[in-house]
Amino acid sequence: MRAKRWLAILGCFGAAITAAHAASPPDLEDFLSYPFVTDLVAPDQGGRLAWIEMRQGRRSVWLATGRDLAATRLVGTGLDDGMELAELAFSPDGRILAWVRGGGEHNDWAANLPPPNPASSVMQPAQAIWVSIDGAAPVQVAEGAEPALSAKGQLAFIKDHQAWTVVLTPGAKPEKLFYDRGKVRDLAWSPDGSKLAFVSRRGDHSFIGIYAGADVPIRWLDPSTAFDGDFAWSPDGARIAFVRREGEADVLASPLVQTPNPFSIRVASVSDGKGRELWASPDTLDGSYPGVPDGMFVRWAAGDRIVFRAEMDGWPHLYTLSAGGGVPKPLTPGAFMVEHVTMTPDRKAIVYDANTGGAAGDIDRRHLFRVDVAGGAPVALTKGEGVEFTAAVAGNDRIAYVGATPTGPMRVALVGGKALGEAGAAYAPAGMVVPQPVSFTAADGTLIHGQLFAARGGAARRPGLIFVHGGPPRQMLLGWSYMDYYAHSYAMNQYYAAHGYVVLSVNYRLGIGYGRAFQHPAKGGIAGNSEYQDVQAGARFLAAQGQVDPARIGIWGGSYGGLLTAHALAHDSATFKAGVDFHGVHDWSLYPNLIGRPERYEQGDYEAAMKSAFESSPESALKGWTSPVLLIAGDDDRNVRFDQTVDLARRLRAQGTPFESLILPNEIHGFLRYESWLRADEASVEFLRRHLKP
To answer: What's the predicted TM-score (pTM) here?
Structure first.
């Protein structure tokens, strides 16, 4: 929908904080030494697990093998070098494990930039693929990303938007697998490893192609003027199921008003490319292509059934559809969101996490469930006051997940069994609290959820602190997040609560977890900034708490949370006495391409949309901004351009508003080095102490 293009981004006056930071608060590093676990994966045939652990910037790859899934650290430099480890991928039999070292998150406009260099090395870093065979010492095999391993052990990967391959023998040189005019992505081998499917992005349309060998032309599956993707191989490798989106029916439709973005499920023959439609979603807002992260999770399951995720009842749920066509059957009905999804090796069941359960506040947690593809009620695999997510299936009855209690460390564990590895060892900072689920009502009557962090004891009133997440399609939980950026935010909210603040984390509209209508509100973002009233409601709720001094309320957040922090200080400096703004958006009109200026004579309401975008930006209310702010950003930000921070700093300086800044050369949006986060957190703690804790 065009209305949501803007979501793709996602002392003295002007004092700069020096590079040499002051001594860290006594126990700040205790709170920041949490283990973060990500990329938990299992091979198609089960039997093994792998995951990535990060602690204080030191990244490592773990491999669990054998009947008891004994875990060992496969690789880890022990250095805070800013070199990301990501994209773990097994061969179907589990013998080969590949991953990517280097690189970092980015939006499409930054796709052609070189890999980031947050440590300011004099040598330009590279993004490289590493492999380990049967648990042996890892070796670097090529520069590139997105590794995909076949049943025959062949490695394909992406480099410069093209598909490449390399033989996994010492000294082998990478070769381009084939030429394509588009930008190649989403590599997936056929079950027998003889063919490679991929998506070719070509601007205003995309195709699904099949590579079958050096002497065979690319076969295109049912090509059209639409966007094709989200595909899955049939178990026999003869067919591919995929999603088709036709694109905007009216290219001049207003970007300020939501319009349906329907999709269809299709199946094509790999042998001749002929396809047919199995089912089309209704031409309604709820029938639109889901806007939640990670898309549709298309899987070809047992019984010749296709499983996918959609929001036809207003919530992201799993559906099953016969490969012969018909009407999709809901597998997971209810007022909750299905998030991370995986399939058992026999393809008969789906394991997923969702924000539902029997405990109060489960809408702000994640628990694991299993549902048979053939139907029937989902079965809860975990429950309680902790969080459990991102399952991987090492066998039909051996399910691993990442989880934690609200005050304990994140770890990998088996459902109903033991913890694996060492991720949970030795993390117990003093003063951790169990955040409480709360809710309050915005001025327009919208119910808003949040998490309240408050230590017990003491009669004296304490300063209050609002936290706003980024995204905005994100949700803060009553525990650790599955995203490293928000695991850091959770640790800092715990730190502030342990040091005399009452913290309210606000899950404002535009976020996920509360249904499609909540995520796609009227007049949200550039269309009117309706989400800011949720921040105002949070401040009123916080000020009404008996332990909070309403004269000492501050706010902090990053990315879209930085935008809302800037809104709070620009619109309501009387309420918000100080703020910390991590790499926020401050003027939407600096991104005219997000609105989509028509490249034709007819311009629609482009000018009105640009006007609305500016009026929905913090800089439109700059004259009311009197409270001090700390601006923190890396100048190699590939999600929110650094010029957003530069522009705001210069405007604040010109009007005499007090601000400080901490700029991190060569850092990206989600800081890659622990040292960068530590410096930013030290500066934030000291800044808020000076302004809110006199």
So the answer is: 0.95
Task: Tell me whether the omega of the peptide bond preceding residue 472 falls within 30 degrees of 0, making it cis.
Answer: yes
Q: Identify residue 278 by its one-letter amino acid code.
A: L
Residue 73 CB neighbour total at 10 angstroms: 12
Pairing relationship of beta strands 329-330 and 299-301 according to DSSP bridges: unpaired
Residue 337 near residue 480 (C-beta atoms within 8 A): no
Amino acid letter for position 207: F
Residues whose CB is less than 8 angstroms from the CB of residue 554 and which lie 6 or more positions away in sequence, other chains included: 463, 464, 465, 466, 576, 577, 578, 579, 580, 688, 691, 692
d(CA 210, CA 217): 9
Query: What tokens does 408 get?
Result: 């304990």
- Overall size of the chain counted in residues: 694
CB 242 within 8 A of CB 208: yes
| pLDDT tens by residue, 230-257 | 999 999 999 999 999 998 767 677 888 8
What are 398's strand-pairing partners? 395
Strands (E), 212-274: 219-220, 227-233, 239-245, 263-269
pLDDT in tens, 40-60: 999 999 899 999 999 999 999
How is the chain split among helix, strand and coil, in percent rounded to 5? 15, 35, 50
Average pLDDT over residues 326-334: 97
Cα 58 versus chain centre, distance: 21
Q: Which of 670, 667, 691 is nearest to 19 (CA)?
A: 667
